[in-house]
Amino acid sequence: MSDVAKAKEATEKQSRRILLLGATGTIGRATVSALLERGHEVVCFLREQSARSDPALSRAILRFGQPTDRESLLGHGFCGEHFDVVLSCLASRNGEAEDAWKVDHGANSAALSIAKSHGVKHFVLLSAICLQRPKLAFQKAKLAFESELMGSGLKYSIVRPTAFFKSLSGQVERVKSGKSFFLFGSGELTSCKPISDADLAAYLADCIDDPERQNRILPIGGPGEAITPKQQGQMLFDLLGRKPKFTHVPVIMLDMTIGLLGLAGLIFPAARKKAEYARIGRYYATESMLLYDAESGQYDASKTPETGTDTLREHYKMLVFDQAD
Ligand SMILES: NC(=O)c1ccc[n+]([C@@H]2O[C@H](COP(=O)([O-])OP(=O)(O)OC[C@H]3O[C@@H](n4cnc5c(N)ncnc54)[C@H](OP(=O)(O)O)[C@@H]3O)[C@@H](O)[C@H]2O)c1
Fold first, then answer.
1. Is 0.85 surpassed by the pTM of this model?
2. Mutation probe of ligand 1 site: the residue of 90, 129, 165, 290 with most atoms within 8 A of C-beta
3. Whose CA is nearest to atom 42 of ligand 1?
4. What domains, with CATH codes, occur in the chain?
5. What is the Cα–Cα distance from 183 to 246, expressed in whole angstroms?
């Protein structure tokens, strides 16, 4: 590499000042570490009650306030200072429509408009691959913000990952205790390319210096072949040295639940919320978290980009054997 190219690379990889939103979330916490490892100055704006004594967070600058309140974001987050990048891992914790519009759309939208007026150059957004085929309320809120971001004139990186390890680990405890692994239908209706928190955080952090990851929507999965829920179950039984035992739940049961809760929801608001949770469940039981090829009308594992080195098998191994101690 020539000296000019080296100097250019060094300038491009200089330390940046980053305002991070959603730093207390699963991916946000990993992203703090990834940004610090790359030499950036990280200012996290978060709800005070959520700040934990987490070693990753303790190495960042913490500012407290209410990220969903524009005035708080302006006065206690940005504080009239310069930031090079805003990176948002904010997301509704329950996926309900009202909360998603407040958090995934509203808080990000306020942050974007303040970022523009404060000379921020680049907005990196943690989004989701499921937005390719939106059917759920929270997906519409997220899409509305993605669209604002793309039209903002700011440089943007919209990262749409596939399934996180945590979302595929909900049955580890029940299987360890000798119970069966639940599957919707055959367990082969969907597949995904699971991505670890650390690999996704590294991918998000590297958007800052990689021009190939700018002004793009970036679907991204973890390494290796796509896997079905059935294969996830088999992996767990294999690690435990036990014969696979599955309980198959017909998808129609979810449809019936959605129908019944939908009817009850005409009268009871609580049932309306439960109907939305059931719709979310049905969506993930029947839609793959892979790149959707609109031409063929199919999800396509081979076209789903991948990053990182962490595998779900290693993650399961850690959960199975750590907790067995
Ligand atoms: N789970 C998956 O498999 C998967 C796959 C692909 C994409 N995604 C996407 O990834 C995102 C979720 O990431 P994650 O699991 O890291 O999220 P998470 O752990 O639920 O964290 C959400 C973050 O947003 C903040 N937040 C939520 N509601 C807030 C509110 N009302 N006011 C202020 N802050 C609020 C939380 O702060 P507090 O700590 O204060 O609550 C937290 O920092 C979503 O956009 C999802 O669609 C998920």
1. yes
2. 90
3. 25
4. 3-162+197-220 (3.40.50.720)
5. 7
Per-residue pLDDT of the chain (325 residues; tens, 9 = 90+): 566 555 555 555 689 999 999 999 999 999 999 999 999 999 999 998 887 677 779 899 999 999 999 999 999 999 999 999 999 999 999 999 999 999 999 999 999 999 999 999 999 999 999 999 999 999 999 999 999 999 999 999 999 999 999 999 999 999 999 999 999 999 999 999 999 999 999 999 999 999 999 999 999 999 999 999 999 999 999 999 999 999 999 989 888 998 898 888 888 888 888 988 899 999 999 999 999 999 999 999 999 999 999 999 999 999 999 754 4
Q: What is the DSSP secondary structure assignment for residue 247, as one 8-state letter?
A: E
Please report which residue ranges of the chain form alpha helices under DSSP H.
Answer: 3-12, 26-37, 55-58, 70-72, 97-100, 108-117, 137-150, 172-176, 197-206, 229-240, 251-264, 269-286, 312-322
How much distance in Å is there from the Cα of 240 to the middle of ligand 1?
A: 31
